[in-house]
UniProtKB/TrEMBL annotation:
Lineage of the organism: Bacteria, Thermotogati, Deinococcota, Deinococci, Deinococcales
CDD domains, alphabetized: ABC_TM1139_LivF_branched
One Pfam family in the UniProt entry: ABC_tran
UniProt-recorded Gene Ontology molecular function terms: ATP binding; ATP hydrolysis activity; branched-chain amino acid transmembrane transporter activity
Stated name of the protein: Amino acid/amide ABC transporter ATP-binding protein 2, HAAT family
Keywords: Amino-acid transport, ATP-binding, Nucleotide-binding, Transport
Family recorded in the similarity comment: Belongs to the ABC transporter superfamily.
Tagged with keyword Hydrolase: no
Domain ABC transporter positions: 4-236
One of the GO biological process terms: L-amino acid transport
InterPro entries (UniProt xref): AAA+_ATPase, ABC_branched_ATPase_LivF/BraG, ABC_transporter-like_ATP-bd, ABC_transporter-like_CS, BCAA_Transport_ATP-bd_LivF, P-loop_NTPase
Length: 236
């Protein structure tokens, strides 16, 4: 049984068909990359899984449970967390407050405090800046905060939307090494990235979306060596 199974998903925004008949699965322990041009429907797919948009058609299941109509906070409780595109940290709240917010579905305040301490160990720069307003952090630090905030719900599946967006290459490498560590520690990851080559190099499998529909899928390593993929999606 796959951890996440998307079957025949379609999502519309008014008259715009953002996702058309998409099926994909993410197995426990995998990093899976979703690539495609701007507007291909990648963000919409993640938002359908976290139940921020309503599918017009299709079925979503997580850990064997149908979540097609489950409320967004319940999906978080079941073990799915999203780090959104553009990070969307609360700029006028402290780092610490942002992390507390990420733990909103948790029952025990003591557990939340303990996990915040663990986040400061994993992301020392967030620890040093715990009382700083999130809006004053650098782009890379804000991305770390967005990931740490998502981790506060102790997800089994982490949805990462464009974690490298707007970051300097050295910071991008740092973010990707964090992604690898999280996966080594047992977190399954569905990753949306513009930086296709890098993301494919760090993932087990890749799906390619075009105009809302899947056009290719396969093992990332094999796809990186496939002439068709190189020419069509990776600039030769
Ligand atoms: P990007 O990398 O630019 O975020 P994407 O692959 O994530 O692209 P989506 O953001 O999922 O693509 O958008 C898919 C399609 O749906 C696009 O045509 C987009 O213009 C449209 N769309 C997205 N959000 C909305 C919305 N809130 N209202 C109307 N149309 C939308």
């Amino acid at each position: 049984m796959a951890l996440l199974e998307i079957e025949n998903l379609s999502v519309n925004y008014g008259g715009v068909q953002a996702v058309r008949g998409l099926s994909l699965r993410v197995e426990e322990g995998e990093v899976v990359t979703l690539i495609g041009a701007n507007g291909a429907g990648k963000t919409t797919t993640l938002r359908a899984v976290s139940r921020m948009v309503r599918p017009r058609e299709g079925r979503l299941s997580f850990a064997g449970r149908d979540i097609t109509r489950t409320a967004p906070d319940e999906v978080v409780r079941l073990g799915v967390a999203q780090s959104p595109e553009g990070r969307q940290v609360l700029a006028r709240q402290s780092v610490q407050d942002n992390l507390e917010l990420g733990g909103y579905t948790r029952k025990s305040a003591a557990d939340v405090r303990a996990d915040i301490s663990r986040m400061y160990e994993r992301f020392p720069r967030l620890g040093e800046r715990r009382n700083q307003l999130a809006g004053t952090l650098s782009g890379g630090e804000q991305q770390m905060l967005a990931i740490a905030r998502a981790l506060m719900s102790r997800p089994r599946l982490l949805l990462l939307d464009e974690p490298s967006l707007g970051l300097a290459p050295i910071i991008v490498r740092e973010i990707f090494s964090i992604i690898r560590e999280l996966n080594d520690d047992g977190t399954t990851i569905l990753l949306v990235e513009q930086n296709a080559r890098l993301a494919m190099g760090q993932s087990h499998r890749t799906y390619v979306l075009e105009a809302g529909a899947l056009t290719l899928e396969g093992e990332s390593a094999a796809m990186l060596n496939d002439e068709r993929v190189l020419h069509a999606y990776l600039g030769g």
